[in-house]
Amino acid sequence: MRLDDYDPGDDIRDLGRGGGGFGGGGGGGMGGLLIGLLPMLLGRKMGCGTLLLIGAVAFFLLGPGANMFSSGGSSADPMADSRGAQGVACDTEGERFACNVFGSTHQVWGSLISGYQKPTLNFYQDENESKCGAAQAAMGPFYCPADQGVYLDTSFFNELDRKFGAAGDAAQAYVVAHEVGHHIQTISGISDQVRRAQARGSQAEGNALQVRMELQADCYAGVWASRAKNSAGQPVMEAGDMEEAMRAANAIGDDTLMRAAGQRPVPESFTHGTSEQRMTWLRRGLQTGDPRQCNAFDTAI
Predict the structure, then answer these.
(1) Which of 10, 48, 159, 301 is buried most deeply by CB count within 10 Å?
(2) What's the pTM value of the predicted model, to 2 decimals?
(3) Cα torsion at 102, 108, 110, 111 (round to 10°)?
């Protein structure tokens, strides 16, 4: 991908391991894997970061999928030069790449939304805190509406490649752009509307609404990729990048994840959508570059 170097300001922070986060007196208290799943139903954490774990909710409750992320953030990260220095953002290869994608999303959404307010990007190692509660590497990347922050342990990039066969910088960029897509939903009021509707409905109805939230965020990620250009005016997407992103979307569909864990797909438990749906909505954003085409709530999915 042809990304410019992004100069991080106060919108990017490195929280390190434990401490320095939000809540719990700034400690790194963790709530375990299921904390990454429950907020989806409660409207607290959303995302591609939940990307794999929320998509695999049935596995963790039923058993066979419980080992899929047993290594969590402790596995070696070939994307990183090392774990980097705590408090110094964008100082490893994986962090630098995420920072550059993050900066590019600001350029696109700032041109589309009047008075656009940036989210923050918060790197952490293994565990920390957000205003939505625990941040844990095994949860994957997520977006917290309470502090309008994207949370990422870059060891997730290794998991995406090694465990799910979704290698490549475009696959990783899709993850970051999807989480920023949830920020767009927050500042536009969509998230609040969905959370209110979820509170009134059954769990199955809440899951169905969450699927639409995730598909819209996939579409928004595609809109970014379609519109993003570097300082030389070149599209950031190069030959083969769209295919990489599509492989990632295919790998993390709820049905694909459940089959991989030896479970029969149960549509009522889906929280991110099928592989086909995820690819369809990512493709919609890529092909149209129009966020108005990303309304997943008033159309068949």
Answers:
(1) 48
(2) 0.80
(3) 170
